[in-house]
Amino acid sequence: MEILIVVGAIVLLLIIAGVYLWATYNGLVTLNVRVDEAWSDITVQLKRRADLLPNLIETVKGYAAHEKGVFEAVTKARAESISASTPAEASVAENHVQSALKSVFAVAEAYPQLQASQNYLQLQGELVDTEDKIQASRRFYNGGVRELNTKIKVFPNTLFVRGLGFSEREFFEVSDAAAIAEPPRVQF
Questions:
Q1: Within a 13 Å sphere around the CA of 169, how many CA atoms are in the beta-carbon half?
Q2: 90 and 42 in contact (C-beta within 8 Å)?
């Protein structure tokens, strides 16, 4: 009878451990997919912004063609943004895009006719909307990364999840937080 109780206890512990491993694995898979989806949302918004930049440059060029260095900086930052494939690369590219956009808007401020241009105002409004969406996507992504990384790091998960193929993910952080503290302004 005692052997039966011991065997029953061992079987019960194995069932509990199996259910725990099953639930943990499925939870990690869900979080991993959520983080991938959130990163995809960020790349969509970054692509949308990259698609707006050539139109913005051409509009500003019509009024300030002599500002070649500013336009080259925006073009270079745009290319860097498009080619970024990891959160770390995207963070660096984000800093360069924000810096280049500030230069474009500084040039635009010197041309009242440009600021009154309907095309310029529309592009600037779309850019502000896109920047808001990038920030929202970034918050969602970082929240998912935080959940995934926490689940990976907590005990006892930390003992076995790496063996299941899960690893911590990078946050999408921008080194110059002031550069993205507020989106580009639309001035009337």
A1: 25
A2: yes
User: What distance in Å separates the CA atoms of residue 82 and residue 110, rounded to the nearest whole number?
Assistant: 29
- List Cβ neighbours of 114 (8 Å cut-off, separation of 6 or more): 59, 60, 62, 63, 64, 108, 120
CA 28 to chain centre: 20
Instruction: Residue 122: count other Cβ atoms within 10 Å of its Cβ.
Output: 13
Number of CB atoms found within 10 A of residue 112's CB: 10
Going by pLDDT thresholds of 50, 70 and 90, the confidence category of residue 175 is: low
* Residues 6-57 pLDDT 10s: 999 999 999 999 999 999 999 999 999 999 999 999 999 999 999 999 888 8
CA distance 188 to 184: 13
**CA-based end-to-end distance of the chain:** 87
The answer to whether 108 and 60 are in contact (CB under 8 A) is yes
Measure the CA–CA gap between 164 and 56, rounded to whole angstroms.
Answer: 47
